[in-house]
Predict the structure.
Amino acid sequence: MLKKIETLSAEMLAELKKATSEAEVKEVEIKYLGRKGAFNDIMKALSSLSDEEKRTVGKEANITKGKLEGAVNKRIEELETEKLGKIADEEWMDMTVSGIKPERGHRHLISSFIEDLERIFAKMGFAYVDGKEIEEEHYNFNQLNIPDDHPARDMQDTFWLKDLPGKLLRTHTSANQIHHMEKNDPPTRIISMGKVYRKDSDATHSPMFHQVEGLMVGEHISMANLKATLTHMLRQVFEDDSIKVRFRVSYFPFVEPGLEVDCTSPRGGWLEIGGAGMVHPNVLENVGYDPNKYTGFAFGMGIDRMIMIKHGIKDLRLFFENDLRFIEQF
Ligand code: PHE
């Protein structure tokens, strides 16, 4: 009988070792230690033994059972540790690895340039005024000394708005001068910036582009003030104190004299960057300013053009294609 216990015990331990899951361990446990298990058969068989033998065998059987129960628990623990070890190997995570940064955008080249301009002019005392992209003919042309039949309207290839008589997409930011002067008395100093529209499209012309408009009206304002203002602005913009400005006589109905503005290029030579002039007395009268008392200058520059010059960009259309390979460079 004792021999039998020893054999059963060895068999069970061997089977436990082979069990690869908790369920399998339980099966082995039931097979040997369960109510209908091998050890119970031994207990039942004890009755046929002498008292002396009953005691020895019974005791041995109980001790062995105890040991085997311990072995069952140990095997379960072992399997659990193995499982966790495997998970740790396969599913580990390095908590110290830095995270994936969400991509952050930045201001478009044009927007940040507009902010720079606003700052440069603010330091010279120019207030910023906003305007409307859908403008009235009256402000875009008439008040600027461009009457209905004036050929100068042909200089600016206007987008008229269907079904909205007298409304158009502003062809220049000059209309903002009028809005401002109608509401404010001299002396005054403003700039205005934004999108303007003309039927024109090639590498250096886009049907939509950006302008900066400046206006300064007061007593004794002269072309010298205009030149100084533009020179300072361009030196700041191009970050080059050697930039020079020159005026060429030109024609815009709302200024007299009218001027083309050129500046020395950071890459050599002269570049045309906008129009300017002394505000026409008719315009001053239109907004109720006394042309005998007040004079003023006005200018309008292409923002996109200035950026192209600054960065050596050859094609204006790049600004509006929104190709990240371009945008990310600035
Ligand atoms: N508005 C003119 C244009 O777009 C530029 C300009 C502005 C000229 C102010 C003179 C004075 O062509």
Observations:
- Residues 172, 174, 252, 255, 275-277, 298-300 surround phenylalanine (CB under 6 Å).
